Amino acid sequence: MFGWGLWQWLAVLQHELLLFAGVFFLIGAMDDLAVDLAWLWLKLTGRAKTPKVSRRELQSRQLSGATAIFVPTWQEADVIAETIAHMLASWRQRGLRLYVGIYRNDPATLEAAMRSAKGDARLRLVIHDRDGPSTKADCLNRLYEAMRDDEARVGAQFAMVVFHDAEDMVDPGALGLLDMVVANGADFVQLPVEPLPQAARHWLGSHYCEEFAEAHGKAMVVRDAVGAALPAAGVGCAVSRAALQNLADRREEGTPFEPVSLTEDYELGIAVAENGGACHFVRARGEDDLLIATRAYFPSELGHIVRQKTRWVHGIALQGWDRIGWSGGLMESWMRARDRRGPLTALVLLMGYTLLALTLVLAGAYSLGLAQPTPLSPLVVALLYINLGFFAWRVFWRFAFTARNYGMAEGVFAVMRIPFTNVIAIMAGRRAVWAYARTLSGKDPAWDKTPHLRHPLRPGLDYRGLRPLRGVRS
Question: Each residue of 153-189: b (16+ CB within 10 Å) or e?
């Protein structure tokens, strides 16, 4: 053994990496297969049916009670005007009040928001009493305090609170659908999120399409069906006022969100469920076959994408382990384990790509006669073929769900983007571990948000005609 040469040592390393990556790829594949089979069973039994609804009827629906909409911002001057204008034009119900949180040291966003108001009394611009950025959770707490002050002035509470981000293009039927479900007893409701495909020069930014197509077309459907807590996406979701009050009562500060949380949206749905609230994920399509969903352009630059994914992995997989723990039954533990596998997935993917590179190097050495190939055992060969079969299975699902929402061409692109999405996962996982280590040393997290430079409703970027419906009255 001590007399081995370089190629023999590399062959041993290749074999060990093959076992490590192969076993963990298989574990992940079995996990995904369980979700796939559960979804198939729900479809076959009719429990995962996506109903058709009328957007016009939903948009004209009289709200069951007053509704507050929270939109926290930081340096969103490029998109906030379109978001506010489109939201107020799409949702014309008089019982709506839109709270937009703006930091005192962000005058550009304040100016853009004021331009979009156009005298609509339903808009409230809430100036945060500190310099930004703090965290999104902290900004949401400031909006909660503003809403609470308004409630005290009028002597009545809102019925529900809806959450959105500064870059969102809301669906004209979304508010009516959320109100309908909450009025029927739900404490938390999440609608699908549909990232928008981007131009060729922003090819990376479109990879969110396939991720959300599967997550909100399959995984969330299964979570809802098995009774597990539903993580909020932070957009297109609503919480009953009573449920939000319960969350605020649990904290000494009297506000619902923990300011140091990086994924307060994820924790929101989990916390409502832990408080005994009824939670639902609602998928419905309009007459045009488009989902009632929140749409937006996601980050398209590699650095911005990695920063966003880092925040998700850090907040959900690492911070969530500390803050939320493992309470709940078997199904709940399974779903939380799925949520928190990001760092392990990044490690396994890194080992997989290292194995691929090493295999190419050794193949070159074998072809040049510098080394002799080491035969693989039948068990290892079987492991390789099983993983290859599961990979083909995953490719099929990724194509199918993406093509259903975006068309065949985008489905093909989703498959082609798989290597890039894997590299992004590796980069984000590494950065998340280091970011988490910094917080363990006592450094508070900040709102490391990504910039939004384009809005879907900017001239020339209209998406599938989802503008406010004309002639609709509240």
Answer: eeeebbbbbbbbbbbbbbbbbbbbbbbbbbeeebbbb
Looking at residue 361, what is its pLDDT? 87
> Which residue, among 456, 407, 468, has the nearest Cα to 174 in the 3D structure?
468
The residues facing 99 across adjacent strands are 70, 124
Strand 188-190 and strand 237-240: the pairing is antiparallel
Express each pLDDT in 341-400 by its tens digit: 999 999 999 999 998 898 888 888 878 877 777 788 888 899 999 999 999 999 999 999
Residues in contact with 23: Cβ distance below 8 Å, sequence separation at least 6, in sequence order: 383
Distance CA 305, CA 169 (A): 20
Within 155-253, residue ranges assigned H as helices are: 174-183, 207-214, 220-226, 241-249
Q: Is the pLDDT of residue 3 over 60?
A: no
Share of the chain above pLDDT 70, in %: 93
Surface-to-core class of residue 270, CB atoms within 10 Å of its CB (0-12 exposed, 13-18 middle, 19+ buried) = buried
H/E run at residue 265: helix 264-274
Q: How buried is 262 (Cβ within 10 angstroms: 0-12 exposed, 13-18 middle, 19+ buried)?
A: buried
What the block records as the tokens of 1 is: 């053994």
Q: Given this model, what pLDDT does residue 362 score?
A: 84
Please write the tens of the pLDDT for every residue from 237-250: 999 999 999 999 99
pTM for this structure? Answer: 0.91
The per-residue b/e assignment along 324-337, b for 16 or more CB within 10 angstroms, e otherwise, is beeebeeebebbbe
Torsion on CA atoms 167, 169, 173, 175, rounded to nearest 10: 10
- In which region does residue 362 sit, left (phi positive, over 0), alpha (psi from -120 to 50) or beta (all else)? alpha
What the block records as the tokens of 230 is: 């539903």
Residue 251's identity, in one-letter code, is R
212 Cβ neighbours under 8 A, 6+ residues apart: 192, 193, 194, 195
Q: Are 410 and 197 in contact (CB under 8 A)?
A: yes
SS (H, E, C) 103-155: ECCCHHHHHHHHHHHCCCCCEEEEEECCCCCCCHHHHHHHHHHHHHHHHHHHC
Is-cis flag, bond preceding 451, omega within 30?
Answer: no
Full DSSP string of 36-73? HHHHHHHHHTTTT---B--HHHHHTPPPSS-EEEEEE-
For residue range 315-340, what is the model confidence (pLDDT) as tens digits?
Answer: 898 888 778 888 778 899 999 999 99
Neighbours of 45 (CB within 10 A): 10
Report CA-CA distances (Å) from 106 to 73, 75, 144, 234, 450.
9, 6, 20, 22, 16
